């Protein structure tokens, strides 16, 4: 089913391959949602209706975990070093590419991105931050969220807002707000999971959220991401 706000903007709920970890499989970059090539057509259409984006099927080094391996904005993106040259050639039609290497390759888990900026995991070295700033043409700030370095799993952002792990610290909130240019809120997904980045995918106009997500959680997601 899908819950709809008063003005018809959808927050759809569902699962992918039986999992509520939607953000592990899907990556929303600019106006495009990258999804596993094998995702069934009806589900692709459902997600497209909720997010109002173009849908693009891709595998990265044979993996379906697109959300974990890819992150970026409309100008550029970071991809895991699993990516083949063919993958990289394909993705360059959507923007500049930086390949993350040396054990820090889960780009989607390590970066929280919108059009305004990037929050990067402390696992990424300083020279990597500079390359990310060049490729995405934006400010990059290094920070943990709730003391953890998988910032892409612990936050979800669009250009209107950002939802973070409930245990995020005051200083972390300031860094995230400084980088992304939007006011953070805290919340959970899928009946209490703090891994909001792993549990949902959002564009500027909609969201697709794990099926177990409660009404109060859905309301919080709407508020945080300006979907009302």
Features:
228 residues; alpha/beta; 4-stranded mixed beta sheet; 3-stranded mixed beta sheet; 10 helices; 16 strands; disordered N terminus
Structure description:
The protein has 228 residues and is α/β, with parallel strands linked by helices. The protein has 10 helices and 16 strands. The strands form 5 sheets. It has a 4-stranded mixed sheet with strand order 1-2-16-15, with helices on both faces. A 3-stranded mixed sheet has the order 3-4-5. The chain has a 3-stranded mixed sheet with strand order 6-7-8. It is globular and about 40 Å long.
Short description:
This protein is an alpha/beta fold and 228 residues long. It is 31% helix and 27% strand. Residues 1-9 have low confidence and may be disordered.
Sheet with the most strands?
4 strands, mixed
Share of helix, binned: 25-40%
Rg: 16 Å
Shape verdict: globular
Mean pLDDT: 94
Distance between the amino and carboxyl termini = 18 Å
**Which sequence of SSEs, written as H and E, runs from N to C?**
EEHEEHEHEEHEHEEHEHEEHEHEEH
Total DSSP E strands: 16
User: Number of helical segments?
Assistant: 10
Proportion in β-strands: 25-35%
Strand order of the largest sheet: 1-2-16-15
**Structural class from helices and strands?**
alpha/beta
- The low-confidence parts are 1-9
């Amino acid at each position: 089913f899908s819950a709809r706000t008063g003005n018809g903007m959808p927050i759809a709920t569902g699962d992918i391959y039986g999992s509520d970890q939607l953000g592990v499989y899907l990556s929303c970059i600019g106006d495009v949602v990258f999804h596993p090539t094998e995702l069934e057509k009806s589900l692709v259409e459902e997600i497209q209706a909720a997010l109002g984006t173009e849908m693009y099927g891709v595998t990265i080094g044979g993996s379906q975990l697109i959300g974990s391996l890819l992150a970026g904005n409309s100008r550029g993106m970071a991809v895991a070093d699993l990516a083949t040259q063919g993958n990289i050639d394909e993705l360059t039609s959507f923007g500049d590419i930086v390949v993350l290497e040396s054990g820090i390759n889960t780009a989607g888990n390590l970066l929280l991105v919108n059009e305004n900026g990037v929050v990067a995991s402390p696992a990424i070295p300083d020279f990597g931050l500079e390359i990310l700033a060049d490729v995405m043409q934006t400010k990059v700030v290094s920070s943990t969220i709730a003391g953890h370095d998988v910032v892409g799993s612990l936050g979800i952002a669009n250009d209107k807002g950002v939802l973070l792990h409930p245990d995020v610290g005051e200083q972390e909130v300031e860094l995230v707000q400084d980088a992304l240019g939007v006011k953070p809120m805290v919340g959970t997904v899928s009946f209490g999971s703090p891994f909001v980045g792993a549990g949902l995918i959002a564009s500027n106009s909609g969201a697709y959220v794990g099926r177990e997500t409660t009404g109060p959680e859905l309301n919080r997601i709407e508020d945080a991401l300006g979907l009302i």
